[in-house]
Structure formats: structure tokens, C-alpha cells
């Protein structure tokens, strides 16, 4: 049986992503690549904005993944030897990066990559350029596990960028996208990047003035991830990335791909960005959306609803607490397990405020009236027994906020 490494989307799985985050970042940053704009105050789309090699290669990688899946007729089972799949994907990446890339010879390729695109004998050229990371978003969006994201990232990347830093930069980006898509918090993403890839020991404001144009992974990927981590919305992530300067289109494309997976993308921004794609690129983009599943409007809520699964007593965000004074005689103090969710609650409150700033229709002040309109009273019994028919995204957010507000009358929010 042919084995697929990718997730097959179920008909009920709504919160999926396209490639639009990377595309928007590319377009927004394109006019500032060699004329940096060190401010978040700029027009997101302008007449001189355009898609560059970042968009072209991202779409080419998406096409390669789709064609690999079609040929191997993927199954739900992911066990077995994936050599055949990996080999075919590598060939497909080379095929479509060249085939599509040659149709856009003036889209901003670097010197070595241009030679690779147009040669008849393409070989990797020991690169650690940031092009490795700007095209990787289809991998992060489609991978079924973090391990698969890492494995596919190396396959896609090493056809050109086979130097260790190039492979690491692409993998860090793919993993950040995967984690953002799967509902990890920003702090969890930061910890993962710090532990496994780069030390994010700086802020964008600290480095902005001295940050210059740089085309390496090691001087682009950490900055792009940090721009996302400091953001308050998808649009703010793009603006933060562009304001840093440097290789603006690539940096913003990487940031945008993570931000899309985390926040979703406002419909008006998405629709405007799609007007920059010609018919061929738009056709592949639409094919990808169908392949991975159309994105629902509910996607915008997942920045908050991801917390539901984390409020689980098995995740101990606290320690055992002692009752009474320790007499120094007993081997251990008497204690009971106390599960504190203070870190999660504080993170949720912060993101809820940011969410309400970006979605005025869901201001914090409205949560009680939303509950009331669904015949839910602000008390434990009523909220616990709410009819599932009324639990749309808006009502779920109001229930979470109502519960959080009730719990915060104590020192720590905790399980009852």
C-alpha cells in the first residue's frame, strides 16, 4: 500500500489554512525590500506592490505536495516505509519549482537559485539563504505531526539549500507554523524555538534600528518568528515584520505564514491579496484550498478557542500545596494536588483583549449579554447545562470569558 505522510482532512474539519499568509507578507514587503520602511505605519497594498519569488516558490511547493499525494493515492494509515513517498516528493519539488519558476524569470531570484531554476541538471548548492524558509509554509500547514513537518521540511529544502543552517531555518519555520495551526500558545512556540532552533533573546524594538538587509536563514528566521510572537493580530504581525527592515518581503512572508496559522486572515485582506495573483498562480492556489479544505470563518476564533483543550487537570500548571505547618518530623509535608491555570488564564485574558480590539463586534463588555440572549445565566449551573444548539463560536467565547471572570475572584484560577 502506498503511504501518505499528510493529514487527510475530514469533512468536519473547518479550521484549515491556505497559503495566503505567506503571499500577503510577500506582497506587503515587496516594495520595501531595497528601501526599508522602519515603521508599522504604511499602506498594506500599493500600486507598486507585487508577488515575488517568495509567492512563486511557495505555490510551487504546494503544487509538488498535491501532485505527490495524487500519484500515491494516500491512505489514512501513516505507518510503513515512506521511502517511495519521500523520493517522489523530492522529484516533484524539483519539477514544479523549475517548471513554475521558469515562467517568472524576473520575480527576484537570487543568483545561485536562478541558475538552479534554469539548469537541466539541478543539484543542491550548499546554501543557507532565507529562501529555504520562505517557501516552506505548505509543509507546516499539511503535516500531520511535528515529526512529519520536520521530515518533509528537509526533503523540500535540501533540493537546493542543503547546508545545515538552511535546513534548520526551514524546519524552524515549518514547526512554528505547525504548532500555530495545532493550537499551541505563543509561549509554547517560543519555548520550542528557543530550545531546538534559535535563542529569541531580543525584541523587535531592540534590534530595529541596527537591523540591516540579510538573506541568511540565521539572520531572518528568528526575527520573523519574533515578529509573529510580539504581534496582536494577523495584520499587526505583517506590519511588525515589515517595520524591522532587512529582506522585507521574505521576512514578512515567513511571519505571515505563521500568523495565518495562528490568527486566520481577515477576509478583506485576503481578497485584496488574491488580486495580485495571475490566472495560473490563482488556479494552483484554489486547487490547494480544495486539497487541504476550505477555510471557515470560524478560523478567526481559534486564537481563543484553542484554550479549551488546554484547561485539563492532567496538565499540571502548578504544584502540590501543603496544608498546615511542616513539623519537621514527618518525612514529607501533607499535601494535595492543586492545579493552577494562572499562566493559561493570563494568556487567554491578554489575547481576548487583543481579539476584541481587532473584532469590535466581540468586545469584552458584551459577553454577559451574549450569554443572556442564549438563555444562559452567569452562574456555574446555567453555564454547565447550556444547550449545545446555542454554542456557536460567539457563545463559546462568552462562556469561556464568563468562567474565567468568575474564577479570577480567587488568587488563582483552578479546577472546581
Write a brief caption for the model.
The protein has helices at 20-30, 53-72, 83-101, 111-118, 131-134, 137-142, 146-158, 164-181, 186-196, 204-207, 221-229, 234-244, 248-263, 267-274, 279-292, 302-305, 342-358, 367-373, 380-384, 393-407, and strands at residues 320-322, 335-337.
Q: What string gives the helices and strands in order? A: HHHHHHHHHHHHHHHHEEHHHH
What is the CA-CA span between the terminal residues?
49 Å
Number of strands: 2
Q: Which structural class should the secondary elements be placed in? A: mainly alpha
Unreliable stretches, pLDDT < 50, 5 or more residues?
A: 1-16, 313-321, 333-337, 409-416
Widest β-sheet, arrangement of strands: 1-2
Shape: globular
> Major sheet: size, sense and barrel closure?
2 strands, antiparallel
What portion of residues is helical? 40-55%
What is the alpha-carbon Rg in Å? 23 Å
**How many helices does DSSP assign?**
20
User: Averaged pLDDT, please?
Assistant: 83
**Beta strand %:** under 5%
What does this 3D model show about the protein?
By secondary structure, the chain is mainly alpha-helical. It is 53% helix and 1% strand. It has helices spanning 20-30, 53-72, 83-101, 111-118, 131-134, 137-142, 146-158, 164-181, 186-196, 204-207, 221-229, 234-244, 248-263, 267-274, 279-292, 302-305, 342-358, 367-373, 380-384, 393-407, and strands spanning 320-322, 335-337. A two-stranded antiparallel ribbon has the order 1-2. Helix 1 (20-30) crosses helix 14, helix 2 packs antiparallel against helix 3 and helix 7 (146-158) packs antiparallel against helix 8 (164-181). The longest helix is centred in the first third of the chain and has 20 residues, at 53-72. It is globular and about 70 Å long. The termini are far apart.
